[in-house]
Amino acid sequence: MEYFRFRSGYAKYHDLAMLVGFVGRVDPFEPPTKVVVFDEPATAGNVWGLENSEHVFVDVTTFKTPDMPRAVFVCLSEEGIVWFQNEEGTVEDIAEAGLWKETSENYGYLSRIAQIGEYLYAVGYKGQVYRRVKAGTWEHFDQELLDPEDDKFDIVDLAISSDGIFYAVEANGRIFARREDTVWTPIINPAKEQLRSVTADKDGTVWICGRNGTLLHGSAEQGFVNVSGVDDNAKFLSVALFDGVVWVCTAAKIYTYDGEKITLVETGLTPPLRSANRLQAVDGVLWSFGVDDLARYDGKVWQRFVCPATEPLV
Description:
Blueprint: E1 4-13, E2 16-23, E3 33-39, E4 48-53, E5 57-63, E6 72-77, E7 81-84, E8 91-93, E9 110-116, E10 119-124, E11 129-134, E12 137-140, E13 155-160, E14 166-170, E15 175-178, E16 185-187, E17 195-200, E18 206-210, E19 215-219, E20 223-226, E21 238-242, E22 245-249, E23 254-257, E24 262-264, E25 278-282, E26 285-289, E27 294-297, E28 302-305
Antiparallel strand pairs: 1-2, 2-3, 3-4, 5-6, 6-7, 7-8, 9-10, 10-11, 11-12, 13-14, 14-15, 15-16, 17-18, 18-19, 19-20, 21-22, 22-23, 23-24, 25-26, 26-27, 27-28
């Protein structure tokens, strides 16, 4: 029997999250995409909602402007289709992104979407960074970064520091930074390792994680230091800040960094956590989104939520 697996997930609140995924052992990156909403306060015990999409959604986030009563979930397809879970079911197209649309410039697929400040941003292959400047209009934010000839140039995450510096991290280890009125410039990666995730701290610095235990801390102005030890060799996929602590995860385990060392987290879950691809701190909790697992930490206790369509726990 084939089971549902999560490709990505994102929480709106401490009790409401959306996940996108596929059915099968290996991700085919073909339609349909299963879109699942976990709604803990749902009535009649029906906390899981499921629908299919004809698009290959690879990421999900939330979006809210000051004139919106509440945030909405937003899904991104690898071809640059953006779907808003609002009453209208708004669909937008980042026209130049992707490979198979008539409007595509063959820059390649997109992989990540996020709201940073008031705007939505989407990133992907060949240095693509797009910003949604208004409804239906996405503009390049990748001047001096976009490289149509570099097939190995893959922007995987984006963040902005508390002092207004944008950071883009690239899968093969490159770091770039810019302000609103400047262009992207390269920043030295002292670890010289592949990178996967970046998050901003409140003091103007950022944290970046990646392969071989890489955990970088610093800024474009101060430079970066790899705070991991010689024995740290895990492939970190995601980094988040929660309860004053730096949290990172691999595909199956979660760790913390307390300012001195990186320590494996014992969740106390039975059986142990199966997967943990993405961490997100929101609304006073820490969410862990894995390929087969959805878990939440409230600062005291870890709790697992089992989607009926996923492989049963053993």
